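Students often ask why inverse folding is considered easier than folding. One informal answer: many sequences map to the same fold, so there is more than one right answer. In these notes we will look at a single instance of the problem. The structure comes first.
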């Protein structure tokens, strides 16, 4: 994730100082996990949390593999996760890797509150159903948010509340099977027949999925345009595929 677009300041705002005062009055010492593949961003987040939660134990990771190990090793109260991460440090950061880590964090035995940050968080639209059912607290925001807003969202997630930005909330909820069809077609290049085999359904069912996808993405038939190309463009714009 590019760090030169982030406008956070290491100076803690009044809201951060208020949170620090509240944490001083708490007997619980929380454990926070910060995951970002850019050191400058990670250090900014750690400094922000340390100022606001002086009693907290802070753990850091810069790739999916390390982060998963930390999640399994510790009882994490709050995980702040970058939505674009490499599987291992030095590899290319990908959104699908970040989404995979979010899902892993949501499935831990110890309920972990989650705050997702990214240049774009549209890909979370494919997880809306899972997020709204999550009991431990979940928030998401653009990395362009001021530090005070990020702190408030961290507190919101820790309280067990759910918050998604308007551009994610307003997008239609999509069936997981439809997302799988899009991924298999446009990221793996499979034919409808091969998609049907992968999903364990009939070719007719796959065709019905395409009609549903076309409808939910509001893609209309145009004799001058390739329908599947138009569906791909719309799906990428909506964050349904990388």
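Output (designed amino acids):
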């Amino acid at each position: 994730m590019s760090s030169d677009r982030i406008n956070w300041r290491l100076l803690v705002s009044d809201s951060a100082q208020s949170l620090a005062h509240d944490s001083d009055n708490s007997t619980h010492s929380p454990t926070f996990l910060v995951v970002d593949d850019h050191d400058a961003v990670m250090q900014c987040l750690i400094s922000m949390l340390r100022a606001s939660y002086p009693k907290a134990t802070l753990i850091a990771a810069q790739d999916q593999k390390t982060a998963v190990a930390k999640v399994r090793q510790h009882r994490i109260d709050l995980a702040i996760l970058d939505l674009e991460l490499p599987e291992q440090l030095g590899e290319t950061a990908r959104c699908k890797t970040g989404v995979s880590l979010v899902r892993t964090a949501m499935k831990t035995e110890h309920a972990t509150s989650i705050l997702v940050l990214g240049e774009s968080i549209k890909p979370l639209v494919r997880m809306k159903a899972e997020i709204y059912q999550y009991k431990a607290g979940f928030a998401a925001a653009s990395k362009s948010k001021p530090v005070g807003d990020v702190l408030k969202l961290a507190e919101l997630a820790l309280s067990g509340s759910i918050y998604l930005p308007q551009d994610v909330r307003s997008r239609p909820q999509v069936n997981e099977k439809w997302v799988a069809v899009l991924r298999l077609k446009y990221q793996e290049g499979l034919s409808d027949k091969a998609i049907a085999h992968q999903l364990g359904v009939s070719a007719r069912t796959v065709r019905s999925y395409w009609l549903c996808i076309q409808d939910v993405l509001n893609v209309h038939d145009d004799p001058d345009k390739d329908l599947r190309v138009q569906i791909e463009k719309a799906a990428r714009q909506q964050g349904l595929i990388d």
